[in-house]
Each structure stands twice: as structure tokens, then as C-alpha cells.
Design a protein that fits this description.
274 residues, 6-stranded parallel β-sheet, Rossmann fold, globular, alpha/beta, 20% strand, 5-stranded parallel β-sheet, single chain
Length: 274
């Protein structure tokens, strides 16, 4: 017998590959959120993508016809800034490879963004990555700055297919410096811990919904949280069949997840989905 989605009132939901691909909403997005709101479920939209600010994510969802509050969004940029704020003195210097989301999150925690003698080099998703940024990061890490990554996703899903992710940048810097980064985002614990705090829920009371085995699902298992894999993003049915790592549940996409919440069917266990 499968486990019903309807038993969970607290959801940690990935965004890229679950709610959208690039700038295109995935089928069933509006109906999915309608049921979430009508059933009064508590949600945290937790993404490894550090490129956007929280207001930018709120605006993106609004363009897709979905209303969310700022405190319902948790990015790897926010999780990284919060983690560092608890580990280093206020006003520490941080050199950044990343977009507006990462820079804003660090500044909100009173870090000084500077490439001169930083205590940390923090690396996230960066649409404007260039040789000069990589070269600066290598020099600072070699000089003793602590190497931190918002997430280790080597790729991410777009409308055009699978694109390069933050993990590929981390790999280049690791090769050039010999240093292994501290990674904060999924599948590492800090982002999940912060998401549970926002929900005010325990791991046993929560379900993770994601599209990627090695981040969403692995992180959920490490945190002892039940997981649902949607086959709309990075992980394909063929990849799932070949993997030792298996979610608790598998569904094709948001329409099926919505139906499962409405009718409480026997949703498909991972083994059966293969």
C-alpha cells in the first residue's frame, strides 16, 4: 500500500523543475496552489538556486498566477547567509560569485562584500560568471579565505534543456585550489533545518517534494523527512530505475500531486513507478 500525500500538512517544495522550467510554469501549477491554500497546508518553497532575491521569486510566481508570502520562500542564499552569520563575527568580509539573491542575503546579515582580504569566498549561481571572477576567487581561497558554496547542483533544468549549475563552478575552483567547499544547500542539513524551523514542524510531520534524487531526495532522507519525487525536472524515470537512492513516493507531475491531495488515493510507491 502506498502512503497518501494527504497525511502531510507541512510541505518543503522545490521550485526549479517542480513549479517551473526556466520562465515557464509547469502544467497544473495554479490548481496545485489552490488546493494547498484551501487545505490550509503550511509550505516552504526551498530552492538551491541562489541567483534571485526573495522579492524576485515572489514576483515570478505572481506572473504565473500564484500568490506567496516572502516568508514562504527559502533560498540557498538565505540559508548560506544565516549559517555564516552564526559562525563568524558581524561585518566580516565576503567575496562573492553570485547574483542579486546571494548578495542581498549576505548584506542582510551585515556582511561586507569585498574582494580584498575576505574571510570567506561564497559561490552561488551567477549568470554573469567570467574569468576575472574565477581568478579572484582562486587567489582569495589560496590566500586562506574559507571556500563556501550555496549548493552543489552541477546542472539545473531550463526550457531549453539541462543547463550548467553552481556545482560546476565549485568543481572548477576546487580543481584550481585543492580546497573542498563547505556546501549549505540541499542535500546538506542546514537548509532543511531552517525550513523545518519556518514550518514549526518536525521531520516526521513534513513531506519534501522535489525533482532531483541527489539533492531533494537525498537531503530529505538525511533529515529523516518523507519524500515525493516529481518526474518533471532533472531526474528521469530511467535514471530513477538505475538508482539505489529511492524516494518514498513518485508521481509524474503537479496534476497528479494535486489529485492525490484531493482524493487521498494510494499514490505510487517508488518501486512501482519503475
Amino acid at each position: 500500500m502506498g502512503v497518501s500525500i494527504a497525511q502531510w500538512r507541512n510541505l518543503i517544495i522545490d521550485m526549479d523543475g517542480v513549479l517551473w522550467r526556466g520562465e515557464t510554469a509547469l502544467p497544473g501549477l495554479g490548481a496545485f496552489f489552490k488546493v494547498l491554500r484551501e487545505s490550509e497546508r503550511r509550505i516552504v518553497l526551498a530552492t538551491n538556486n541562489s541567483g534571485r532575491t526573495v522579492p524576485q521569486y515572489v514576483a515570478k510566481l505572481e506572473r504565473m498566477g500564484v500568490q506567496v508570502a516572502a516568508d514562504e520562500i527559502l533560498t540557498s542564499a538565505q540559508a548560506t547567509a544565516s549559517y555564516l552569520a552564526g559562525a563568524t563575527p558581524t561585518g566580516s568580509r565576503v567575496s562573492v560569485i553570485g547574483g542579486d539573491g546571494l548578495r542581498a542575503a549576505l548584506q542582510e546579515q551585515s556582511f561586507v562584500l569585498s574582494d580584498e582580504n575576505p574571510a570567506y569566498v561564497v559561490v552561488g549561481f551567477d549568470f554573469e560568471l567570467n574569468w576575472a571572477k574565477l581568478d579572484c576567487a582562486v587567489r582569495n581561497i589560496r590566500a586562506g579565505a574559507v571556500f563556501v558554496g550555496t549548493n552543489a547542483d552541477a546542472t539545473y533544468p531550463t526550457e531549453k534543456g539541462i543547463g550548467i549549475g553552481t556545482g560546476a563552478i565549485l568543481a572548477a575552483l576546487q580543481t584550481a585550489t585543492g580546497e573542498t567547499p563547505i556546501v549549505i544547500g540541499k542535500p546538506e542539513p542546514p537548509l532543511y533545518e531552517q525550513a523545518l524551523q519556518r514550518l514549526g514542524a518536525t521531520a516526521a510531520e513534513t513531506l519534501v517534494i522535489g525533482d532531483r534524487l541527489e539533492t531533494d531526495i537525498l537531503g530529505a532522507q538525511r533529515a529523516a523527512i518523507a519524500s515525493l519525487l516529481l518526474l518533471t525536472g532533472v531526474t528521469t524515470r530511467a535514471a530513477l530505475a538505475q538508482s539505489e537512492l529511492q524516494p518514498d513516493l513518485v508521481l509524474p507531475g503537479l496534476p497528479e500531486a494535486t489529485s492525490a491531495m484531493l482524493s487521498e488515493p494510494k499514490t505510487t510507491p517508488a518501486a512501482a513507478a519503475r
